[in-house]
Amino acid sequence: MTTFLFRYSLAVQYLTIFSPGLNGKGSGLDLARSVPWFPVVGLLLGGGLSLLYFGLVWILPSDLADLTVIFVLIAVTRGRRLRGLVQWIQPATRSEFSSPAKDEGWHGSLGPTQVFVLLAVLLLKFVSLDLINESVKPQAILMMPLVSHWNMTFLVYAARFFKRDYLDPGSFIRWVEGRDFFRATVVFIAFPFYVLKLKALFVLFIMILFSLLYLKLCRARNLGFDEDALGASSEPCEILFLMALQGLNFASN
User: Fold this and answer.
1) How far apart (Å, rounded) are the C-alpha atoms in residues 28 and 43?
2) What ranges do the domains of the chain cover?
3) How many CA within 13 A on the CB side of residue 248?
4) Residue 197 class from Cβ within 10 Å (0-12 exposed, 13-18 middle, 19+ buried)?
5) Whole-angstrom Cα distance, residue 195 to residue 143?
6) Full-model pTM
7) pLDDT tens-digit profile of 182-212?
8) Hey, which residues does 225 pair with through a beta bridge?
9) Three-state DSSP string of 32-52
10) Are 228 and 87 in contact (CB under 8 A)?
11) Under 8 Å between Cβ of 46 and 145
């Protein structure tokens, strides 16, 4: 139980602003062992956001509630997903591998292209969430971080098949073990299947396809794969998930 709590706490510390009694403790190997708990952290984040949305819609218009949920998720995850996206958009600012786990901040100033893409991504996410039917939006908000955190888990395990010089030499990604992937996937699949039934297979297929294409794109751009690249996948993954839900809803009507 102590080992479980330690690894889960490491996952919480790495993915969010919270540090449950660790105060930065834990090696890269320890963090690698915590990767299977990434979807659990995502599920708890989604639960909190869903409850927040329930409260907000009583006092705010739906559009403002959607926008608040989006920015709260960014804040709770320390902006890592946006920082990774910035570095991914303009790889010239990445002269060497960085380690977001150390909270080094932005690597270089934001250029016009980066600002434009960030605003476009946030607008697209807002529109995608706003278009979700109100009757299923709390469930969509709950599953959104779960899906993106499982996607990060999948990317970590898939990246292990890259050439060794393609990965950050100091990254925990080098130390993950494939045997742990099954547990993480069980956590991911259980809740979507409970909510979406067999339609969850379509969501799973879309997420795997996105992950493989994202890794291929990283490799084609010769960016390497580190924690910045990992964080950059979160926003497009969640947008794609919301679009997939909207497509399923449209097909069922």
Assistant:
1) 23
2) 2-252
3) 21
4) exposed
5) 9
6) 0.84
7) 666 776 677 777 777 778 888 888 988 998 8
8) 167
9) HHHHHHHHHHHHHHHHHHHHH
10) yes
11) yes
